[in-house]
Design a protein that fits this description.
elongated; five-stranded mixed beta sheet; 60s Ribosomal Protein L30, Chain: A; 253 residues; 47% helix; 2 domains; 15% strand; single chain; alpha+beta
């Protein structure tokens, strides 16, 4: 009989690549988790953590029927729960801080609030003080009325204790202006915001905390279709930014 030729078995030298690929995948996932938990945006973090819980769910075979079920990774779930709890507590403290600030501003501006020339609200961006330009300035002017100087000093006394950025915005109506000092509403609204900012600085608010912008008639509260509405649109906003909002971020009510 002819002798059977014995086949030579070759070792698979590429098997290490499988383990290496698994290691790289886990390393990538680790850095994704680290990046995700470094964010302090609570809503985005909750979304991210839910995605991770789904992505890292462990498959298991049910005892009957071979149905595949999922089970959350307990370590990952613990990390997510702890981080979410810390973010919730941090957000609660920020909200309480901004509420105290709003209360202090309402106290010093109570008479103007009663006259409905000032409103103070708390938004996602921070505390917003809306002051009618009619009590701050004369028609077509950017020089502060003497009667408002003491009020702004009291506002500054509250604000100089804060470390948050402060944005001062000037707004006008849509009636064109063309003077030697103010060729358009852009210059007028910018000058009015600057006048308020300078008063705050002179009263002790650090200049590095302030930013100024003139928006002319581009962000009206109401349509410019009556004298009353135009008066409402002529205003100066002082926004004390919430600590978890970057300066210059878009307005979110």
């Amino acid at each position: 009989m002819a002798r059977r030729i014995k086949r030579t078995e070759h070792d698979n030298h590429d098997r290490w690549m499988i383990s290496y690929a698994d290691f790289v995948t886990l390393l990538f996932a680790f850095f994704v988790v680290m990046y995700g938990i470094s964010s302090v945006n609570e809503e985005k973090y909750k979304t991210f953590s839910n995605s991770l819980n789904t992505a890292f769910a462990k498959p298991s075979i049910a005892a009957t029927g071979g149905i595949v079920a999922t089970q959350q990774d307990p370590v990952l779930k613990s990390l997510v729960d702890k981080r979410t709890a810390r973010l919730g507590e941090q957000q609660r403290k920020i909200q309480e801080q901004m509420k105290i600030l709003a209360t202090g501003l309402k106290e010093v501006m109570a008479p103007l609030i009663e006259q409905r020339t000032v409103s103070i609200s708390q938004t996602k961006r921070g505390v917003v003080v809306d002051i009618s330009a009619n009590v701050l300035f004369g028609t077509g002017e950017a020089t502060l009325q003497p009667g408002m100087l003491n009020v702004l000093r009291q506002v500054a006394a509250v604000l100089k204790k804060e470390e948050s950025p402060i944005e001062v915005e000037g707004h006008s109506d849509d009636v064109p202006i063309a003077t030697a000092q103010f060729p358009s509403n852009w210059e007028l609204s910018s000058a009015r915001a600057s006048s308020v900012a300078r008063m705050l600085i002179d009263s002790g608010v650090p200049a590095k905390h302030l930013s100024v912008v003139g928006l002319a008639s581009n962000q009206p509260l109401v349509p410019n279709d009556s004298p009353e509405n135009r008066a409402r649109n002529r205003r100066v906003l002082i926004t004390i930014m919430s600590p978890n909002v970057e300066r210059g971020a878009g307005i979110e009510e």
